[in-house]
């Protein structure tokens, strides 16, 4: 068995060394379905940028993903297609001009759309796109742009939203409050998809408590006093917020959705199609494209820092010395991406110095907790051996400790952005968009870092609070649910974190989790979880094993074991022998927004099996 494990460790290591870029980073794709490809075609056509070869390539990729029933799916085992994805693809293909509504494939798509409620039933983000591009009237939006002016003392204000929610909602407020619409000579007519129903942002039976929150915000706006035009001041503030957060590549916070919404919002503010800010933003979006098996894909963002920190850490865990050229180059890249600018996080922790890391290559102002812990894992030996790297380590540790939430957990981006009242706003995907609460995966991974790499344990007040928070969040079956993965991911993060800070593997919570994982192990030794877990709010098996889910589950069992058990042996054999089916390699392992947005990190097929097998080897050899 050990020979097979060593052979697989060597195979993965060789592949990673081969795939490293000249600057020391790894640029594996961050794949998010076809939504961004469709949005890019619609954006370019709306701006009348006739980049035909680029558009043709996107058309080919989108068309190639269509199902036999005419729909587009979000993931392999989705029983029927996704309505939003299908409307988006239908719109983009027609607008491209390279597909005709008489085409059999598009006619099949239209039939699917009409049979499933029509365009009025799509996700809120697509409703916004349909309104912007003049395909429907702007639905009533009950919150005025003056919400931008509510003071910090008001019980709900701009900085109570998550940084991601804030970044998307601000351009949306400009667009909704100006009723901006832009059609072009190429615009298709999608009126037949609406089935004579008006499109709405909110349902008629909107909950009473949601109406109360909106009424409360309106009262706050009414109480604003100023000698200038409040509406113009609010529009100016919203515009300035976006412009102040443009990254070096011209994008707004490195996200596709925020940048495209910013472009439309700037058009609403009177900018021309060819304004330098808009031109640079489009160039920035194009620069984030990648190729997947030869096909062009517009990435939602680049995952370069995340890829590189994870891979550097995994290589070192598997025995590659920190002095190796591959690790040295990677760590120099990582050090160069540590943040030195203040971001919105400083509003919630005003005395904290910058020191975190972000997710994307050119992300300089919105760091996150997960990237920061993995970056610190990657440079840990460097910080010990080289004095000039110690400062980066200290700044990162300081940022990470200070950003712990008051409830004891860690969130994704900022501190204490967890006012649950905002979840009452009736916005599609609101629970994943509007606030940034403590999560199981971030808390577990932060504790794992502190326990394994800084020598802190459960005696430390910070760890004690994190442990207490995590134990309260365990489900009755023994699992935990993660924010950026689902049940297997959340359980892996929680258990490895708890054990790292000294919680006994014999603790009832740990044993419950171990038993749960054993109960869902597949016959082939692996594990696999469906994206449906995310929609149904309970664990749903994939019925096939994936390398990534298997690695998470296996690593969890190893962290709580003193000897190799049959389940561990069986899981390691699945990874070592490459038993997975081809389609499982591209199955999304990450969640963005429940039911609408899933993430496929192409580096995961290498990173997590490498980590799990390295830890298996340590356990088997008694180290």
Which residues form runs of ≥5 with pLDDT under 50? Answer: none
| Largest sheet strand order | 1-7-6
| Span between termini | 17 Å
Q: Please count the beta strands (DSSP E, at least 2 residues each).
A: 7
State the helicity in percent bands.
Answer: 40-55%
Strand fraction equals under 5%
Count of DSSP-assigned helices:
25
Largest sheet: 3 strands, antiparallel
Overall outline: globular
Determine the structural class based on helices, strands and strand pairing. Answer: mainly alpha
Radius of gyration from CA coordinates: 24 Å
Average pLDDT works out at 94
Main attributes of the structure:
623 residues, mainly alpha, three-stranded antiparallel β-sheet, 50% helix, globular, EC 5.4.99.17, Terpenoid_cyclase/PrenylTrfase, SQ_cyclase_C
Characterization of this structure:
This protein is mainly α. 50% of the residues lie in helices and 4% in strands. It has 25 helices and 7 strands. The protein has helices at residues 2-19, 35-46, 52-64, 83-96, 104-115, 124-132, 163-178, 208-222, 230-243, 256-268, 276-287, 304-317, 325-336, 369-378, 380-385, 387-402, 430-433, 440-453, 461-472, 487-500, 508-519, 532-536, 547-559, 566-577, 604-620, and strands at residues 30-31, 289-292, 295-298, 527-529, 541-546, 590-593, 597-601. It has a 3-stranded antiparallel beta sheet with strand order 1-7-6, with no helix packed on it. Strands 2-3 form a two-stranded antiparallel sheet. It comes from Neobacillus citreus. Keywords: Isomerase, Repeat. Pathway: Secondary metabolite biosynthesis; hopanoid biosynthesis. GO terms for molecular function: squalene-hopene cyclase activity. Residues 304-618 form the Squalene cyclase C-terminal domain.
């Amino acid at each position: 068995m050990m020979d097979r494990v060593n052979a697989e460790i060597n195979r993965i290591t060789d592949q990673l060394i081969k795939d490293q870029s000249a600057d020391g980073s790894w640029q594996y794709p961050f794949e998010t379905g076809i939504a961004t490809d469709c949005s890019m075609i619609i954006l370019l056509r709306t701006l009348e940028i006739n980049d035909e070869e680029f558009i043709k390539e996107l058309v080919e990729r989108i068309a190639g993903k269509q199902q036999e029933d005419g729909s587009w799916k979000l993931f392999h085992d989705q029983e029927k297609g996704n309505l939003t994805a299908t409307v988006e693809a239908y719109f983009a293909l027609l607008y491209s001009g390279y597909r005709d509504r008489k085409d059999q494939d598009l006619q099949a798509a239209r039939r699917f759309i009409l049979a499933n409620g029509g365009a009025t039933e799509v996700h809120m983000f697509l409703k916004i796109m349909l309104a912007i591009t003049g395909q429907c009237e702007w639905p009533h939006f009950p919150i005025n742009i003056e919400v931008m002016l509510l003071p910090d003392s008001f019980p709900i204000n701009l900085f109570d939203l998550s940084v991601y929610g804030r970044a998307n909602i601000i351009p949306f407020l400009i667009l909704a409050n100006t009723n901006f619409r832009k059609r072009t000579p190429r615009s298709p007519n999608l009126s037949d998809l609406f089935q004579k129903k008006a499109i709405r942002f909110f349902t008629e039976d909107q909950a009473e408590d949601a109406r109360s929150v909106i009424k409360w915000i309106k009262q706050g706006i009414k109480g604003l006093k100023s000698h200038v035009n409040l509406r113009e001041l609010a529009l100016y503030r919203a515009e300035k917020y976006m412009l102040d957060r443009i990254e070096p590549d011209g994008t707004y916070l490195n996200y596709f959705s925020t940048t495209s919404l910013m472009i439309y919002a700037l058009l609403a503010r009177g900018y021309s199609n060819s304004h330098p800010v808009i031109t640079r933003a489009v160039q920035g979006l194009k620069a984030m494209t990648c190729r997947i098996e030869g096909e062009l894909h517009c990435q939602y963002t680049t995952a370069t820092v995340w890829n590189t920190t994870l891979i550097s850490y995994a290589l070192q865990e598997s025995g590659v010395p920190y002095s190796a050229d591959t690790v040295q180059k990677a760590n120099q890249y990582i050090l160069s991406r540590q943040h030195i600018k203040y971001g919105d996080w400083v509003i919630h922790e005003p005395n904290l110095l910058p020191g975190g890391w972000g997710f994307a290559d050119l992300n300089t102002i919105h760091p996150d907790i997960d990237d920061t812990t993995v970056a610190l894992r990657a440079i840990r030996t460097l910080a010990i051996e080289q004095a000039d790297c110690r400062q980066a380590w200290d700044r990162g540790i300081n940022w990470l400790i200070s950003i712990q939430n008051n409830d004891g957990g860690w969130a994704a981006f900022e501190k204490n952005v967890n006012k649950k009242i905002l979840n009452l706003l009736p916005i599609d995907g609101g629970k994943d968009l509007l606030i940034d609460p403590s999560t199981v995966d971030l808390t577990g991974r932060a504790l794992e870092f502190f326990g394994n790499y800084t020598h802190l344990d459960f005696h430390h007040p910070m760890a004690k609070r994190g442990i207490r928070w995590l134990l309260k969040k365990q489900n009755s079956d023994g699992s935990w649910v993660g924010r950026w993965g689902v049940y297997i991911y959340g359980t892996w993060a929680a258990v490895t974190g708890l054990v790292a800070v000294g919680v006994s593997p014999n603790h009832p919570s740990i044993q419950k989790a171990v038993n749960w994982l054993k109960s869902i192990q597949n016959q082939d030794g692996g594990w696999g979880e469906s994206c449906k877990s995310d929609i149904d709010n309970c664990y749903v098996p994939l019925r096939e094993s994936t390398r990534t889910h298997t690695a998470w589950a296996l690593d969890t069992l190893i962290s709580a074991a003193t000897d190799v058990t049959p389940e561990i042996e069986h899981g390691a054999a699945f990874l070592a022998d490459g038993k997975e089916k081809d389609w499982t390699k591209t199955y999304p392992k990450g969640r963005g927004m429940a039911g609408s947005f899933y993430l496929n990190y192409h580096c995961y097929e290498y990173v997590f099996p490498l980590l799990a097998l390295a830890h298996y080897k340590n356990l088997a050899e008694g180290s």
